[in-house]
Records
---
Amino acid sequence: MKRGLPILLGVVTVILIVIAWFQSGGAEAHELQAATTPDQAVRLMLSQVKAHNFDAAYARLANRDDVDKNAFIREFDGSNGSLLTYASMESFDVWGLKTNEQDATVRAKLHYSTAVGPLDDIRDLKVQHTGDTWKVLWPVSKAPKLPPQVIPVNYLRWDVISRGASDDWGVQNVDSPQVRVVSMNAIQRPDSVVLVGEVVNEDSVPAYVNVGATLLDPSGAELAQESSFDKISHILLPKQVSPYRIDFPNMRMEKIKSVRMDTKALLVPASADPVIEVNQQKLETDALGKKVLSGQLLNQSGSVVNIPHVIAAFYDSNGKVIWVSDGYMAQALLPQIPLPFAVDLPPDVAKNVQTYRVVVNHYDSTSQS
Amino acid sequence: METSYFSRPIPLRFIILLALAIHGPLLALQLPLTNSYDANFHVFFASHYAHHWFDPWNPKWFAGFSQTTYPPLAHQWIALLSYVFGLHWAFLLVQLIAVLLTPYSVYKFARIWVDERAASYASLFSVFAGALVFLVYSAGQLPTTLSAPLYLLALPYFYDWSRSADGKALIKGVIFTLAAAGVHHVTLIFGSVLFALPVLWLAVIDRGERSSVAVVIRGAIMAGIAAAGVGIVLLPYWIAIIKHPIEQMPIPHASRSNLILNITYLTNYFFVPYGMLVIALPFILWYGSAVRRLRPLMLGFWVTLIFGLGGTTPIPRLVFRRAFEILTFERFTLWAVMMALPIVGYIAVKLIDNYKRRAAIGLACAALITLVLPMVWIAISPFSANADLNVDPVDSFLNRDGHDRYRYLTLGFGNSLPKVSTYTDANSVDGEYNSARLLPEFTHYGTAQLTSAKYFGTAGMDALRMMLRHAAHYGLKYIFVHDPYYEPLVSFAGWRQVESYNNGSITVWSREDIPPARPVPSDAMPTALEGLLWGTLPLASSILAILFAFLIPDQARVRTEDVVVPFPAPTPEGALVREAR
């Protein structure tokens, strides 16, 4: 007992730790270090990126001489105040697409947690067999650079003079801008009821707009109350139209008798700058087989747009809004350099889409202060 | 007669003065309030009792929650003392009492296992315990550090009653248990069992001619009386958790992870709290096994050590099941250390008897390193409680011009959120006490405070998005941002920046279409009777404990011949040989 018990407890402790080590994936992580398959090579590199161990991740590249390390880091950490600079990789899925003895293609789906919600990034990576291990062949991309130039800014801007610093904004003693919901369509989705439509600023001054909706049952009682949240462009310039979407999770259309729409509008300062052009829009099927509306954004101004937010309204043959999709761009929108975008839409909606319209909302870190 | 300092027990008075000398200045520097995770949270709870003693419904967090979900005694003592000293100094005073009680209680606890000299060493080492320093100055867990010594004080009475049916021991043991339970529920539910079982086992070993069954039955009787008492004293707590059991999504906590897969976590939850005890671990097992009377304590220590390792072994998850996802495991480490100390005291006696001055110097150095390690770790650790943020402008904003008619949210404030809440009349939708949350925006997502949402990844940001979506429902108009990370979401959701403070490090955002806040109906609101019980019984149990401690002397135990337990002492022959050399 005197000698046996401490030895027994020591052995049991070690056994318990080893069991938990296996349960926690310690063995797999150890096995991953060898990178004996293309999948393992990609997993190893991405797990090092996830742990922010960029030196080790960079060391796993087959073409280190061709890839600038800082550019490699920016691929994951973002730059220019883009959404990726407000993001961290949470997890990833990896699966092989094709493999032979010397090289392979592996698809990786990176799941980021960002400041505005989850973001997925899908990449097809080439992997090369070098010696007894596999290494990732990172795509070499040259970031386009513009020559120095002057971009004149001559867009409209509206300022509002308030009574004093102690005033709340919105307490302005002026009439609210004339804002109107021009359309509203209720759609039953498998897990929710969705209200989509458009709102227009009919005034000659800019407006802060928010659209809320309350669902009422046959007795007139409130079923649920939601707002458009970030699925709207809150600042509308004179005559500007924004799509909106309001989601009611876990709701069935049969329960609803009526909807009470609530549009709030306030006079706010605003600027028409930057102007963001939307080009080459088309409905297509992406690599994962999902229906998407893709296109390009072009920032016509001279300043960086940190986080562009695309909101797309889809219309049927009668011109009725049948869906509203939105998506945040992972990269910043640099002046004069096109940035591709894609927002997805449900396949059953896609077959009824005749036309679409895209508006671009944006966040600029410099304009907030 | 032995005259060497090394061969005599250290006077308890000296040890408590040493604890005062070491921890007094550290507490006077307000380290827990500026560095720890939970200190401001406890001040916030105390502040509510100071203003609404008999109304445990607190509307300031989560659009209203019941403080009966957390035993009130530590907070109520802070509230009482705050009328004289103010909230911050009252908190520090109660924390100091906990720190001073620790060596005293460890001495009393150790005396049932080892002789007076070893117990005094155990008591001395408790002043330097890394786990205590870690919990006081880094975690800010006042109730854990106060209830543990109260339980330790109850245990000798549990031993006496179980062993010899001493009625006074039964009364004092029960009343100390009630006071300890009134301070902290987790220590009550888990810690008390871990401490009590080895003591009961020892009572069986020391039963002499008595029946072991009788000893166990007496132990069960005292446990039953204590359980009934706790049931009454904390009745509103039981009502609250029965009505609303914790069914929310598990919230990740580093202490539950496999520590050996992350060196930072291993340092934070193992090396720092154990300090030099890590080196002593094999000896604790060895000597704890070698002495029959120490075996139950050693096994209790080992089990608690395993629990304290969280996800490093599969045992805690298997034993606690669903509770594993709710518990945090750093407090188990404090209990493990407290259980180890009597054995460490015993080892120290052996070392000092054999190596005299060299052993004393070595042990002193080890104790100092164990004390200093957590302080150094607090300074260099990658974790930051962010508890020392200047929130005065935020409170000033909320308390003027009717801004408190709306609810507010802080983002990036870390553990400074309770500081904001303590000194404003405005209510928040956020809060720091996970177990009290009933709003679906919290319970459906695996996240803790919204103010720290980004650290919980997608779950945290989804919960924040959901709360912002329902801003109009909750009257959530003002958002204070201390981390630019949150600005894009707040901006896209329609808030606009209206002010900034502290050279722009805090920005204020507002949405003007938000209506004033309305009370959110909740069935968790305690009744007036529950409020009355909550405001009287726990405090009464603590006052009774203090009275009994002074009015019913303990000497009865040591005066009774048959209670004195012979303990293996160093053999006189060995000492004679050393003297001859």
---
Amino acid sequence: MLFFVQLINGLQLGAIYALVALGYTMVYGIVKLINFAHGDLMMVGAYLSLFLYSSGLPLYFALPLAIVATSLTGVLIERVAYRPLRNASRLSALITAIGISLLLQNAFMILFSSTPRRFPSVSEQLPVFVIGTNRISFMAVLTVLFAVGLMLLLTAFVHGTRMGKAMRAVSEDMRAAQLMGINVNRIISLTFAIGSALAAFAAILYGFSFQQIDPYMGAMPGIKAFIAAVLGGIGILPGAMLGGFLLGIIESLTKAVMPAGYTQLADAVVFLVLILVLLFKPSGLLGQTTREKV
Amino acid sequence: MTNEMQPMLEVENLEVFYGAIQAIKGISFHVMPGEIVSLIGANGAGKTTCLQTISGLLHARVGDIRYEGQSLKRVPPHRIVEMGLAQVPEGRRVFTELSVEDNLAMGAYTLSDRSREAALLEEQFRHFPRLRERRDQRAGTLSGGEQQMLAIARAMMSAPRLLLLDEPSMGLSPVLTREIFLTIRELAKQGITILLVEQNAAVALRLADRAYVLESGRLVMAGSGRELLRDERIREAYLGE
């Protein structure tokens, strides 16, 4: 029965990875940049949520506000740090992304200190499901539902709206999109806005699930979400979701089978997944090997 | 028609660089309203660079480009399309992941009037019945000739007054090339001004009212299409005779 509990834990964790991975994959799809600061935007979202809530705002107001603020932070980062490097080498942009990541971590450490903070708890007010001898928190269910719901919403946006289609057009061929009269800068800003908002959603679900936040909380989930995006096939929305859930489950189950004291090895297993994917299916589970038509 | 005599497009003393390499070395030419003008030249002569600079994808270091009297120098590419200047890029560049109909919708991205868009879509489908049959198909599944038709139709969806075409015959069989050039002539008859870039000098000169010859970044010859077709040097260098 331990297996069942760990599976639920894995899904809950995976949902958070999946939301962060969606942002990674969207940004990569549009500007071909691995935005290593993306995990830290999740941390920004968590602190903003906590800060706004502690300043006396009710949760239902503080959280949406934090999501909007995180979204704007992501747009601002693109504007200030990545846009000037749009035509520079990919490596320059990548190093800048790492720089932004360090900047965010250290800025929040100075602002809020490195001591972990307690995130407001809502689980006491939520029901608990009991299946046999297992207790499943409503938060776990909610987290998974939120992640899947947001992914479906995003897919509908990208396939069903004019702006979403423009986003796919820019992602496939930026120059051709410009020749269609698409304002590419606006589409890129929109992409960062959506990706960062999803990171803030992930942050809130993370906070409610694990109760603790600190300035470095984004680093490890950020890297794992990146692995999730690669596992599913970078640039592919359902791939990010699949990769996120798979990775969460792999991590949880590994923790369950490892002897006590060795649970840290679960992280190593996750990285092993990345190595295996890159070795055997670099385009990811849902990715196709690109065929260029001449 | 008060500005009948004003060129639709004026390129003046244009110089374009890729880093330290100069691709366009000071060229000047113009296109009058209603004309079909061809720019011919070998691979690497600077034809594509020239069109990309007109569309705002590349920036001139020296010189100016004026469209209907207005300088395009600091105008971003999407605004240029809004002004009525569209381009069919080299290699078609259709959005392979999008359906044929969505590709056409992207062409009309600058239009805010949905009923106008619907009318333009209908017009493209009338021109290219094949695209209507394949409207829900992914553009990547089309043949080369169909993709070229889609690329032209897509550019026409912004209702341009000036259409730039970059190597529309590239990779097409002689039969398809003929079909595409008939289409271009058709568009010109509807009053659309055409600037065409081609390696296939024979078809390009036959179609053109006037033509320019571009050689390693410089214009070396100009004249009516018929004149250039008869020119000894052109026959030898570009028509393989």
